[in-house]
Amino acid sequence: MHTNAAKTPMPHPPEPPPAPAHPLAEGIRGLHHSSISAANQRAVLMIVATTPGITNAEISRRAGLGAQTVSRFLADLENDGLIRRGEVKRGQPGLPATPYFLIYDSVMSLGVSIGWHRCDVVLMDMSGAATAVETIRYEQPAETVFSDVDARWRTLAERFDVARKPRMVVAGVTVPEDLADGLLLPGEHGGRGTDGVARRLSEATGLPFRGYGMARAAAWAEHGGPGSPWKGDFLYLHIDEVIGSAVILGGVAWRGGKGGVHGPQLGRTLSGGRVGEPTRLQDIASIRALRKRVREKRPRADAADAETLFSMPAAEAWLEEAATALAWAFSNTAMVIGMRHAVLGGPVPRQVLARLCEAVRDRMRAIWPCDCDIIGVGVGLAGPAAPAIGASYLPIYEALFEREPSG
């Protein structure tokens, strides 16, 4: 007897697929033979970027384009100063072949992450390696952060070799949504939130800033960073004054709505509170939740920095409740979208994040069915500056590699 009914898949999380290692390779999985259209030149540049030393013939085979078309694109990219020719390969079957390489420092990117108590500034080239990382610290962010960033940028720009100035400088910024409007003047025109902050930074520095969601940028820094173990699918949680979240699926950082500023909102999902009533995850597991605990015991101590906060006795109770809430949040998310890995990051001290990961794993063992593998939970490697690092990756990708430029 034959049937056309589809088989119901087993509820077992899939293995994470391999993803490109280069930090600018977001979306390269879509560059198949049948889907390269108006973005052919960007596709050629992406192939050169992710395969150093590749030849015209190899690019032609990978992209499904004619050799003459590829040669024209390569000549244009070379004239633009984005790629260079290597030494001709001889002694192999066929005609001599010329390898092509990306000129990493032809494009530079400034990534800025404005937080509640720190502002990180990262200068990046197309290799994905940070050439400079600087941090501005303050008790409360103020409107002067724009001039502070401009001063840091001008100092960094002095390092450029006069003979080899970059052909292009792009810039990205992340800032928590509930912090962004406080940095802008009342009645200020030109957008609010992250877009408004990007506009103000553009006016202060002269650079074309774009705004990104903090957690999405940080997740991309974890995914694309040199030596990163997070090359497959994973859920990222940024533990700060509030909790941000992002998802990497199929080698792509899920954008969410409004250009990626609003992505997954795991911090706003409900979890059990201290007395069992539904409570948002960020009201249990954020740094702000810890400050509230500290304030209950020591009213004048809640303004301390993260290192000091997590050394206080209240941090132990915070860790216990945060671990339970995170275990439920990760378990539910994993069951819905088949996620196998979760990464924790943010300005929380690394040793605290390590303990939190271990506690979350312990609690998930009690939650998950015995026939399922528990989700892996680990500490991110990019550190507190992860949002700024990701904010420097993404504008390079959008400016040069995205198949459908976002303008």
UniProtKB/TrEMBL annotation:
The Gene Ontology biological process terms listed for this entry are:
N-acetylneuraminate catabolic process
Q: Where is this region: Disordered?
A: 1-26
Q: Compositional bias of type Pro residues: which residue ranges? A: 10-21
> What InterPro entries does UniProt report for this protein, alphabetically?
ATPase_NBD, ROK, WH-like_DNA-bd_sf, WH_DNA-bd_sf
The molecule here is called HTH marR-type domain-containing protein
Q: Which organism is it from?
A: Aquibium oceanicum
Q: What is the lineage of its organism?
A: Bacteria, Pseudomonadati, Pseudomonadota, Alphaproteobacteria, Hyphomicrobiales
> Which GO molecular function, any one, fits this protein according to its record?
N-acylmannosamine kinase activity
Q: Which domain of life is it from?
A: Bacteria
